[in-house]
Design a protein that fits this description.
The chain contains ten helices and 13 strands. By secondary structure, the chain is α/β, with parallel strands linked by helices. The strands form four sheets. The chain has a five-stranded mixed sheet, sandwiched between helices. Strands 8-13-12-11 form a four-stranded mixed sheet, sandwiched between helices. A two-stranded antiparallel ribbon has the order 2-3. Helix 4 links the parallel strand 4 and strand 5. The two termini are 28 Å apart. The structure holds oxa(dethia)-CoA (UT7).
Length: 323
């Protein structure tokens, strides 16, 4: 027993930050950003709070699944930083949607959604849940250094959710972690202790982009190869790949290193940039609602990010599809 995905939903802020507008903030230009990353625009939260976006994504996924909040047995939120240190973002979602089940957060950076799927699979295997809500949300605009052109052009805000029910559609899942704070790091940024002897650091993202790029291209191809083999399948059995939307060049390179045609890779990085753990489920929701995914399709989902972490899984699509 694993699970079936019963429904998906997403929520992104209304404000669209274009490459041209970014070019008025740091020394960059539309041409550089498009050719090096594939990103044309990203969403940035102005009015919307993290909790509001989580709740909107959750409610859309519940509606898509035909499941009520009261039916949920568990809520898992994957995020690097929720609205508060405590309560967890999962508990904030539970309160706002009117659920009565346990709720907690996990942090695996951009791989958070896949990690959350594996955590949920454990609850289904122990038969302690029948319906689980996963919400993946990251609001990177409040932890980006907006004076650093090598990172601020890459990220956007967003959230997405999936409702899981009992089923056998998780065919394989593979998680990795390689502790590395030199490649990607976001310090906490505040410490109220009068005793602490270290200097405070600003809570902004630091990234060695080229190192992450090399890691990502290898991780995506290797992760998919392993997950496909673990599922007892061939790469030719994959109908759709939902990759982490960090950089179109990473996706193109991974596709070249696999025997899966590039047209099968779903891409929306041009509209949202890298939304961290929301990236894969936003893409999954758009593929679901646009009718790209057909009942019975075999989907590979693959993410990588801070940690460094990776997560790859193979899922049989059970066909929700309603928009
Ligand atoms: O979820 C995981 C998170 N992270 C990632 O997935 C990031 C993975 N890495 C990447 O996507 C790429 O490494 C980047 C997009 C970050 C950088 O692309 P690149 O092709 O590796 O560029 P680069 O860092 O080698 O920089 C090339 C040049 C440099 O100038 P010089 O030294 O050649 O004169 C940079 O200073 O481009 C310059 N540059 C920029 N120019 C205009 C860096 N950022 C910008 C910018 N606009 N925004």
């Amino acid at each position: 027993m694993s699970f079936s995905i019963l429904g998906t939903g997403k929520a992104v802020p209304a404000y669209i930050l274009s490459n041209d507008e970014l070019s008025t903030m740091v020394e960059t230009n539309d041409e550089w950003i498009r050719t090096r990353t594939g990103i044309e625009e990203r969403r940035i939260a102005k009015q919307e709070t993290i909790t509001e976006l989580c709740v909107e994504a959750a409610n859309r996924a519940l509606e898509n699944a035909g499941v009520t909040a009261q039916e949920l047995d568990l809520i898992i939120c994957s995020t690097m930083r929720g609205e508060n240190i405590t309560p967890s973002q999962g508990c904030m979602i539970q309160k706002e949607i009117g659920a009565v089940c346990p709720a907690f957060d996990i942090n695996a950076a951009c791989s958070g959604f896949i990690y959350a799927l594996d955590v949920a699979a454990g609850f289904f295997a122990r038969k302690t849940v029948k319906k689980v809500l996963i919400v993946s949300m990251d609001n990177l605009s409040n932890i980006i250094d907006w004076t650093d052109r090598s990172t601020c052009v890459l990220f956007g805000d967003g959230g997405a959710a999936a409702v899981l029910g009992e089923g056998d559609d998780l065919l394989s899942i593979h998680l990795t972690a390689t502790g590395n704070d030199a490649a990607i790091r976001i310090p906490h940024g505040s410490n109220s202790s009068p005793f602490y002897e270290h200097e405070e650091e600003k809570a902004v993202l630091h990234m060695a982009g080229n190192d992450v790029y090399r890691f990502a291209t290898a991780a995506m191809a290797n992760g998919i190869k392993k997950a496909v083999a673990d599922a007892g399948l061939e790469q030719s059995d994959i109908d759709c790949v939902i990759p982490h939307q960090a950089n179109i060049r990473i996706i193109n390179t991974a596709a070249k290193n696999l025997d899966i045609p590039r047209e099968k890779f779903f891409c929306n990085v041009q509209h949202y940039g890298n939304t961290s753990s929301a990236s894969v489920p936003i893409a999954l929701d758009e593929a679901n609602r646009s009718g790209i995914l057909k009942k019975g399709d075999i989907i590979a989902m693959c993410a990588f990010g801070g940690g460094l972490t990776t997560g790859t899984c193979i899922i049989r699509w059970n066909g929700t599809g309603q928009s």
